[in-house]
């Protein structure tokens, strides 16, 4: 007869072993699941791997059948003929000009001078025929810039020059500006000029500075007035100067008269007064006849002197 306690003990050991096996299987399954979840998380957070898929497109047949080419060759295209006979003006503007008028018209060039500065250079005072007889003190070298410009109202000219003496070494500077109108307008400035000189520098002589200017205008169609003034200065100040005025009247196209007055003065007083009159006649073939009278009053000595003469010229 069997022992009851032995049967109970056998069942209990088998059950314990079975429970232990189930626990191990569950733990292994959990570890596997955890590993899969970890791998999935890493896959989600990982950088994507590009994938290139090669696509081979199917060829397209662009060839034309002979029948299609034959039909295209047989087609006719209607090209209209362009007719400009009804167009009488350019751009549709009713100006009265035709294309033929524009083509036959002479071209009118428009030239605008922008920069007309040019260098100047020259040597003066030497005897070209006999260089050995030339004195070094008579030779001077001139260098500078000159400008000539044209506008709608007139012409401008300007220059800047330096004169260099060789014996003794010296330099004299000169500047000039001039304007001349194309038309002699009444009441306007028809001509204007300004000149400045300074020197000589580098020699024992006292350099002087000169300033001169003049302008002319028309009072009427036959009356012209010109005025000028000049002044010279040195290291002590004002040295001397003069003012002049000239009036010209045209009696006819060939006969004219001029009256001119000049006053010379220095830093102390008026030194002299000069009056001058002229009559001029212009004939055919460039012939001219002129009469001149001049009177001078010397304010320093109180003496008066005069001159009267004539001149004649013609071309042959």
Automatic annotation (TrEMBL):
Biased composition (Polar residues): 25-36
Superkingdom of the organism of origin: Bacteria
Positions of the UniProt region annotated as Disordered: 1-39
Bias kind Low complexity: ranges: 1-24
Protein name, UniProt field: Uncharacterized protein
Protein species of origin: Luteimonas gilva
């Amino acid at each position: 007869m069997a022992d009851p306690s032995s049967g109970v003990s056998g069942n209990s050991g088998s059950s314990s072993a079975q429970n232990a096996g189930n626990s191990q299987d569950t733990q292994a399954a959990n570890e596997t699941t955890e590993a899969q979840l970890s791998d999935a998380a890493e896959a989600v957070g990982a950088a994507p791997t590009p994938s290139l898929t090669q696509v081979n497109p199917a060829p397209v047949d662009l060839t034309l059948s002979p029948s299609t080419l034959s039909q295209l060759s047989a087609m006719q295209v209607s090209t209209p003929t362009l007719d400009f006979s009804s167009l009488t003006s350019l751009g549709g503007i009713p100006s009265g000009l035709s294309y033929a008028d524009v083509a036959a018209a002479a071209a009118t060039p428009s030239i605008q001078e922008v920069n007309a500065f040019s260098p100047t250079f020259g040597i003066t005072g030497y005897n070209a025929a006999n260089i050995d007889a030339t004195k070094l003190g008579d030779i001077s070298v001139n260098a500078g810039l000159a400008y000539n410009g044209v506008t709608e109202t007139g012409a401008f000219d300007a220059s800047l020059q330096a004169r260099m003496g060789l014996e003794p070494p010296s330099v004299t500077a000169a500047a000039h500006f001039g304007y001349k109108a194309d038309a002699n307008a009444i009441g306007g400035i028809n001509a204007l000029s300004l000149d400045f000189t300074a020197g000589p520098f580098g020699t024992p002589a006292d350099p002087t500075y000169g300033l001169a200017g003049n302008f002319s205008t028309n009072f009427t169609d036959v009356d012209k007035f010109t005025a000028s003034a000049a002044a010279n200065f040195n290291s002590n100040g004002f040295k001397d100067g003069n003012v002049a005025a000239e009036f010209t009247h045209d009696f006819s196209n060939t006969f004219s008269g001029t009256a001119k007055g000049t006053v010379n003065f220095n830093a102390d007083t008026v030194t002299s007064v000069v009056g001058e009159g002229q009559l001029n006649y212009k004939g055919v073939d460039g012939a001219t006849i002129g009469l001149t009278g001049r009177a001078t009053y010397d304010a320093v000595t109180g003496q008066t002197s005069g001159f009267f003469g004539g001149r004649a010229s013609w071309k042959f």
